[in-house]
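Instructor's aside before we start: the two examples that follow are unrelated to each other. I chose them only because their records fit on one page, so don't look for a connection. First example below.
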Amino acid sequence: MTNIDVISDMLTRIRNSLLIKARKVNVINTKLTVNIAEILKKEGFIDSFELADATCLTENGVIKKYITIFLKYKGPKQVSYITKIKRVSKPGLRTYSSYKRLQSVAGGVGLTVLSTSKGLMTDRLARSNKIGGEILFYIW
């Protein structure tokens, strides 16, 4: 059975959809991807998301459920609110940081998403709660 990195898959799907200025993108439904979508919506990077009824039967007979993420654009030229997404901690090389060493992204415009003992949270929330964790990705 193939093991995929759902975070990298999600970020790549969003990145590719932004390149073609798509309005929505389907991402594999896991607790982790739903929590990431909630953070992105709360911080204003995406418009909304919903649990899709669509399922897909893979070659192995596994049923995959998806969530639909609605991307957010501004102006008549349809400029995305997301400029760049950078994956930091990968399955082959995990990256951890204490709350004291967390740096602001893009001069405070962007954010860092962390996996902590209290769940997923942004760098600002981690600093205020004095919790460190695994740095999943940067977004600005």
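Example two begins here.
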Amino acid sequence: MMQFISIGTFIIFAVLSLIASWLVGSRLSKRVAKISKQVEALKPGDLDTRIAPDGSDDEIGKLIESINGMLDRLQNATEAERRFVSNASHELRTPIAAVATNLDAPLSQGRFPADVEPAIRRALAANRRGSDLVQALLTLSRIQSGVIDAEDVTALQLADFIDDELAEVEEQADKRNILVTTRDVASDVQVQASKSLMDLAIGNLLRNAIMHNISSGTLDIAARQEHCAIIVTITNSTDETLPDDLMNLKQPFHRGEHSRISAEPGVGLGLSIADAACEAMGATLELDRPDEQSFRATITIASA
């Protein structure tokens, strides 16, 4: 009889132990899953977000503290880098402007010997590229630091907005004899977005499409509304060799097959600025190649 009681007691304790273990494991699993969801929700540009502490002092609580500490260090490093870029860009504007003034005026007055003029013109061209680079760096820094306000949202008539953006690049397109077409841009479609950020996104993509086009090529811009999103595509002809992972083109100073010492115009920040502008207003920028002779950029903007 005592033997049966002992066996019964053992079974009861075993069952209770299993239940207790399951409850503890289930609770830990839920806490880990909650942390995992918060980590997955973190966005690259959202440096202020932290994992919500659960008030515990166990290993899970220490893990949360470690993750938040890492995010603090990442935010501090990123902000320091942005401040450096912004400050350096501001400081460079003065000497660049001084060089342009001290070379341009004497050149226009014919005060340089004829054999020196070609070198002066090359120096001025390089100086202008430096000025463009500084301005692009400042723009990128302002977007990433939130100086260009993503909250300044207004209702934009998409067709009118695209027409205005195309007018800005019309001269550049004409110089290269590029045929520009628009498709499916309904006159009644509105997009709720920051005009400043939309200017930077669409404008830089259009300039990129012209700059990296072929002579007498094509540029097609289309816009459509699908469910809860507005999709804008900009497609251009190209004969450039592009990386297998097109997302690399979003990285600063990545210029496809053109090196930084190439005679091709541009400073390698157009797609970086467009991507940063899209991210700041909650949109996405995707890059792909419909075929070997074309390149396409697609902006997807959430709509109400």
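The chain has three domains: 2-75, 95-144, 153-302.
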